[in-house]
Design goal:
28 helices; globular; two-stranded parallel ribbon; transport; transmembrane; single chain; alpha+beta; 739 residues
């Protein structure tokens, strides 16, 4: 996983620049207002500070949509360029107006980074460590603030502090970020697949995963292009086709189905389990309980929770579902090549990728990622312009049982992707059928379970045969077009991934699963901003001053301006170990668990601050209580409510609308940030410090209830499976309302 880790670290440098900028302007403005005589003009002073915020808000309105159109990497390159140019403009700035322009350009870079870095990391990270890697932006942002405060503090000790140098030195790390984005960061493989650039996506995945066989994940990325669709939960007992039965047995026994992997020649036999899967039973039970309790807990939360209750306890990338049968999923070949299947034949972005016709290793990438056995209705099926399914060469050979194939099994988090062919006769006796895509998740641990397969014809397998019980999310494949089926009635047809990714954005946003995800994402962003972090940051220097830190620093000969910068640096430094702990826990405990356990600490800390400002007490006791409360608030905020909303927002939206949906969430974040920042002085005058902290405590209580009722646990799950569950959960909720 080193490739994915290094890419995430490089992308998170953009957040380091964001933190650097936030801290630098806080120190530089002390000297800017002296040079431009802004003491009597606080509105201009406030505008200098807020211009970056305004730029971030403006750019966010379009950054997500543009990223869906042009790609994540070009937008990150643009952000680094804006950082670089903005820092040079601020370094030069002969007057306030040029300074405001530099701050605006800098804000554009900040807005792009805040919106796209979480998307980029989520789309490149393996599910098992996605939470850890997506906590990196929080860590690098706080690290950037600490380094910047230390730099500004050092400059403040000089006889004539130079604010232009304070702001302009940002060009050094921004130049580093520019080189990283241009020469090191690859494009998101999910975005590449959505544009049909399969060869490039495959190579990026190979680099990120550190192995050659990434076909299972390639198949997953294609399946993630769909939005919505009818999904059912089933349960199967699964075994290898060659050890259980043959095609003739399956044709006779209607209770058995054949599952096909992406690799040509690999297939499995499955028998549906009566009564449904444990996941489906628990989710139905959760829906019933929610209905009885007045629909307090979203069925979606119960549905996700039922999956994690059955999640195999494994931290490796190797799936536990088929531990001894090699890879089910490598990209399958199709005999007929289609020149227009992979758009990388064309000149693209100036990168020297070999032509599909000249690279034998890419033969399989001209076809859909599914291959199957010949069915009775497609033996004479002609090829279509869109590329029909071709013959699946039957075989049960399994590759790499102990070698490279084993390391590429599944799609992460204990999940597998497979397909089944369903066929039935209509009233006229004609046979019709179609593919169903299946996400499989093992229930319990694999083991030698021959006794449970006795009822399967041919189930008397001997040796080390293993059969597993798995829950299955069954839905229509992303590349299977009902419109094409109507056009080519002799059989199904597959569409190009780039065609699948096209469609009305507004229609996709109206999907029940997407709307449910937007409620979760926007709700978390609103509650995070109103939970009090800005107010506590504003109050921290005053608290530490009361604790005697200011007196101690003045005795050391440090001026009040330098002392405030050093106090801010110390405050930021305290956050770093807490964020490091959160990075470890994000994938172990989970996002939902961290939120539910850290928010009560925030409530308690705010209540102590309220009490300490209402009740008259000894100044030392007051300083100690306030200091401890602030430290606890900071530590637990950056462990939960700080990184979790951005992580969840980057996980819960489908690929086709992920950019625009996260832009909506980020825009909510910036608007709420503006409201909180500018309402704080007014609230302090009207209700006082105790009243402000009391309001923040109430918001934190509401936040805990919102997380408990609405926010599911997404740890360790592939992004495509998460969005499938959102779609299924939304439809369950709608069905429960109508019942």
């Amino acid at each position: 996983m080193s490739g994915a880790v290094l890419v995430a670290v490089a992308a998170a440098v953009g957040n380091l620049l964001q933190g650097w900028d936030n801290a630098t302007i806080a120190g530089a403005v002390l000297y800017i207002k002296k040079e431009f005589n802004l003491e009597s003009n606080p509105s201009v002073e406030g505008l200098i500070v807020a211009m970056s915020l305004i730029g971030a808000t403006l750019i966010t309105t379009c950054s997500g949509g543009v990223a869906d159109l042009l790609g994540r990497r070009p937008m990150l390159i643009l952000s680094s360029f804006l950082y670089f140019v903005g820092s040079l403009v601020m370094l030069w700035s002969p007057n306030v107006y040029v300074l405001l322009l530099g701050r605006l350009l800098d804000g554009f870079g900040v807005g792009i980074v805040v919106t796209l870095v979480p998307i980029y990391i989520s789309e490149t990270a393996p599910p098992e460590i996605r939470g850890l890697l997506n906590t990196l932006p929080q860590f690098t942002g706080s690290g950037g603030m600490f380094l910047s405060y230390c730099m500004v503090f050092g400059m403040s000790l000089m006889p004539s502090p130079n604010w232009r140098l304070m702001l302009g030195v940002l060009f050094i790390p921004s130049l580093i970020f520019f080189f990283l984005t241009v020469f090191f960061l690859p494009e998101s493989p999910r975005w590449l697949v959505s544009k049909g650039r399969m060869l490039e996506a495959k190579r990026v995945l190979q680099r990120l995963r550190g192995r050659e066989d990434v076909s299972g994940e390639m198949a997953l990325l294609v399946e993630g292009l769909g939005v919505g669709g009818e999904t059912t939960i089933e349960e199967y007992i699964i075994g290898p086709a060659d050890e259980v039965t043959d095609d003739h047995d399956i044709a006779v026994d209607k209770d058995q189905i054949k599952l096909y992997g992406a690799e040509e020649g690999l297939s499995w036999v499955a028998r549906p389990v009566k009564g449904g899967s444990t996941v489906s039973v628990l989710s139905r039970h959760g829906s019933t309980m929610s209905k009885r309790q007045g629909s307090l807990i979203d069925p979606l939360v119960t549905l996700f929770g039922s999956v994690h209750e059955k999640m195999p306890e494994t931290g490796s990338m190797r799936s536990a579902l088929f531990p001894h049968f090699g890879s089910m999923f490598s990209v399958g070949g199709i005999q007929q090549r289609h020149e227009d299947w992979d758009e990388e034949n064309l000149v693209g972005e100036g990168e020297d990728y070999p032509s599909d016709h000249g690279d034998d290793s890419d033969d399989e990438l001209h076809s859909p990622l599914i291959s199957r056995q010949t069915t009775s209705m497609e033996k004479d099926m002609p090829h279509t312009a869109h590329g029909t399914l071709s013959t699946f060469r039957h075989g049960s050979q399994v590759q790499g049982a102990q070698g490279e194939g084993a390391s590429s099994m599944g799609i992460g988090g204990g999940w597998q992707v497979a397909w089944k062919w369903t066929e039935r006769e209509d009233e006229s006796g004609e046979k019709e059928g179609g593919f169903k895509r299946i996400y499989l998740h093992q229930e319990g641990f694999p083991g030698s379970r021959r006794g449970s397969i006795v009822s399967l014809p041919g189930g008397g397998a001997t040796g080390d045969s293993e059969f597993v019980q798995a829950s299955a999310l069954v839905s229509q494949p992303a590349l299977y077009s009902k419109d094409l089926l109507r056009e080519h009635t002799i059989g199904p047809a597959m569409v190009h991934p780039s065609e699948t990714a096209k469609g009305s954005i507004w229609h996709d946003l109206q999907d029940p699963g997407v709307k449910r995800a937007l409620i979760v994402g926007v709700g978390l962003q609103i509650l995070q901003q109103f939970s009090g972090i800005n107010g506590v940051l504003y109050y921290t220097p005053q608290i530490l001053e009361q604790a005697g830190v200011g007196i101690l620093l003045s005795n050391l000969g440090i001026s009040s301006s330098s002392a405030s910068l050093l106090i801010s640096a110390l405050t930021t430094f305290v956050m770093l170990p807490a964020i490091a702990v959160a990075m470890r826990l994000m994938d172990l405990s989970g996002r939902r668990t961290l939120l539910l356990t850290t928010i009560p600490i925030l409530i308690a800390s705010l209540l102590v601050l309220v009490i300490s400002n209402i009740v008259h007490m000894n100044s030392i006791v007051h300083a100690v209580l306030s200091t401890v409360s602030v430290v606890l608030y900071f530590c637990f905020f950056v462990m939960g409510f700080g990184p979790a909303p951005n992580i969840l927002c980057s996980e819960i939206f489908p690929t086709r609308v992920r950019g625009i949906c996260i832009a909506i969430c980020a825009l909510t974040f910036w608007i709420c940030d503006i409201i909180v920042t500018y309402s704080l002085p007014v609230l302090l005058k009207s209700v006082g410090l105790a009243g402000v902290f009391g309001m923040y405590a109430i918001v934190c209580c509401i936040s805990w209830v919102f997380v408990f009722i609405k926010v599911p646990e997404t740890k360790g799950m592939p992004l495509e499976v998460i969005t499938e569950f959102f779609s299924l959960g939304a439809r369950q909720a709608e069905a429960a309302k109508h019942d």
